[in-house]
Amino acid sequence: MKNISRRTFFGVTALAAGTLATGRAAAAGTHVPAIVVGSGYGAAVSALRLGQAGVGTLVLEMGRAWTTPGPDGKVFCDMLNPDRRSMWFRDRTEAPVDGVLFLDLANRPIRRWAGVLDRVQFPGMGVYVGRGVGGGSLVNGGMAVVPDRAYFEQVFPTVDADEMYSTWFPLANRALRVNSIPEPWFEGTDHYRYARLSRTLAGRAGYGTRLLPNVYSFEHMMREERGEAPKSALGTEVLYGNNHGKFSLDKGYLAQAVGTGNVTIAPLHRVTRVTRTATGYAITARQITEDGTLVAEKQLTCDHLFLGAGSLGSTELLLRARETGDLPDLPDEVGEGWGPNGNVMAARNNNLHEPTGFKQSAIPVLAITDPVRDVIAEIAPVPAGIETYVSLYLAITRNPNRGRFTYDPAADRLDLQWTRAQAAPSVAAAKGLLDEVNAANGTTYRYDVFGGGKAFADDFCYHPLGGAVLDRVTDGHGRVRGYPNLYVTDGALVPGSLGVNPFVTITALAERNIARVLADDL
Ligand code: FAE
């Protein structure tokens, strides 16, 4: 039990045993002091701090608890052999990289099941999100990046940046167990040849790079390379989950929350409706099996309701509640301020004498920095197991355009007003940088990677942000205006852009907000 407290251990064991699935706490008609919707970063922080404060808390998560191994002995499937565990109720996988050399290497037919990755498709944008106890932490690349302070102050002018940078970001980094790759190992391992090559090519164009911290344990990764630990990052695992090495929320915040004895997690429960009661809130939750069969529709009540269902999930619940008259006085700004964090992916082709290497760690650790265009281009792996000569980038740009969510009453679902034209500044910034990299190296773009024959993928994102923006829909600490004891805790609070990967900020902001809420409201 090295490095793990008894209570966390209890939580992990309870999660692993699946004892949380059908606890009495989730029985229809139950009243609990606090309900948390979702189990991503904002939700997990809130659940832990509520539990530690002695507040009885029920977490409702629409995805499954990723604890039981499949027939192959693994909880998650890898990227090259996706099966029903990969995607949320799909007949075919929808991985962002569709193939190489126009061969459909990546996507496969699968059985419809409660898989871990979802792609929510709107007309101009596909949004990737995690489904399961742990939310996005189950599927993401683990890059744990604190935003540039000057930009943070611009994005959140009313948040005390001194306090964020002295207290809440350090706390988030500790709680998420953020670590950095040892440089000597990075410089020597075959598994990051692809990243070092991109650094060399960027350097020829005059651009620098930076190493990015991560929640994947580099100590574990080095043991994977030495053959002392089972391969996960070095075994093409990410996107559909990591079986080892990654300190996801189910191992950290959520396990600790359950370990307090005050928090219960009910997986496969999707909250569909929020209404008011005399003293608090009532929610409707639909419980399903992993095959999607409806088990029960439950009404539960609480005194304090925390929405942590992510930018899409929390905004949908609020918009539906306003538009159907359940919570008619919700602010007009619900749905506003959405952005994909300026995400755009791009693929370049390398010269034959400069291969990327066929061994590639699935966890990205290096980014090209362009201080003039305000771009960071993270060097993403193509762990195909063969030499592809492809360099792949996830560029994060500071695109000022914002979309907005609306509610479609006929279909009873969220719509996103976002056009491809709004992504143009992101593509222009990323292309400006990579055009120079190509020019300096005599290389070109790749058009066979994303489908549709394009080199820049501006039609999907990993970083949905906004919809219930801090200090607009909520007060300065996530309390929804006009509705006491109703809170937003997650990426919906962030107005569309952060300039870096978002989960450290979402975690830090949630820590800051729940500390104030616990002090003043409970
Ligand atoms: P999130 O983690 O999305 O959790 C929301 C949870 O609520 C999910 O588990 C949902 O299933 C659940 N839910 C939704 N609706 C309902 C409902 N009605 N009832 C019950 N449950 C519901 O929210 N970020 C980084 O900082 N670094 C990275 O390296 C990185 N890589 C990424 C790679 C991929 C492929 C993806 C998809 C994302 C990546 N992200 C990364 C983004 C990051 O995971 C994301 O910003 C956070 O997970 C958002 O946290 P939230 O708390 O907002």
From TrEMBL:
<dbReference type="InterPro" id="IPR006311">
    <property type="entry name" value="TAT_signal"/>
</dbReference>
<dbReference type="GO" id="GO:0016995">
    <property type="term" value="F:cholesterol oxidase activity"/>
</dbReference>
<dbReference type="InterPro" id="IPR000172">
    <property type="entry name" value="GMC_OxRdtase_N"/>
</dbReference>
<keyword id="KW-0560">Oxidoreductase</keyword>
<dbReference type="InterPro" id="IPR036188">
    <property type="entry name" value="FAD/NAD-bd_sf"/>
</dbReference>
<dbReference type="Pfam" id="PF22500">
    <property type="entry name" value="GMC_oxred_C_1st"/>
</dbReference>
<feature type="domain" description="Glucose-methanol-choline oxidoreductase N-terminal">
    <location>
        <begin position="130"/>
        <end position="153"/>
    </location>
</feature>
<keyword id="KW-0274">FAD</keyword>
<comment type="similarity">
    <text>Belongs to the GMC oxidoreductase family.</text>
</comment>
<keyword id="KW-0285">Flavoprotein</keyword>
<keyword id="KW-0732">Signal</keyword>
<protein>
    <submittedName>
        <fullName>Cholesterol oxidase</fullName>
        <ecNumber>1.1.3.6</ecNumber>
    </submittedName>
</protein>
<dbReference type="InterPro" id="IPR052542">
    <property type="entry name" value="Cholesterol_Oxidase"/>
</dbReference>
<feature type="signal peptide">
    <location>
        <begin position="1"/>
        <end position="27"/>
    </location>
</feature>
